[in-house]
């Protein structure tokens, strides 16, 4: 028989809390913080929200000025060749190759690359390229990838980077700066 449970059952909700606080002094600091919650809720409702500091504040990074582009390739050899070329041309600062991803595809198009579509679902192993570049270079990057990629319709998807490690984002911009400033599209070789 549990001696501490009998009063809980007999006394009900409010008394249970009071007895628990008396029997367990370790809960007092937590209970005192709970009593302050209604006051905090009132002050939050009546006051303007506290200013949110931007993760990039003070870093000079403009959210969205760097992008991560994703390209799938049929194998590591093709991915490595494209990765080297985009870094050499300074269309990207860095390319990560993620081998052996599984792609499950469906399309209404016919004869895409090595796939025989006819409206059925295909599954294949590919290599994913994660390319870091300036957002302003995404059109040139896309054009270059399309010109050298073996797929008839190459996957090139870019997402703007809103936050990240400021020194890394600055490095991406620095490495690709000369291409961005020239305004010219590097030739596809």
UniProtKB/TrEMBL annotation:
Gene: Cuta
Record's protein name: Protein CutA
SUPFAM superfamilies attached to this UniProt entry: GlnB-like (SSF54913)
Organism: Cricetulus griseus (Chinese hamster)
UniProt-listed PANTHER family: DIVALENT CATION TOLERANCE CUTA-RELATED, PROTEIN CUTA
One function term, GO molecular function aspect: copper ion binding
GO BP of this protein: intracellular protein localization; response to metal ion
Record's subunit section: Homotrimer.
Keywords in alphabetical order: Signal
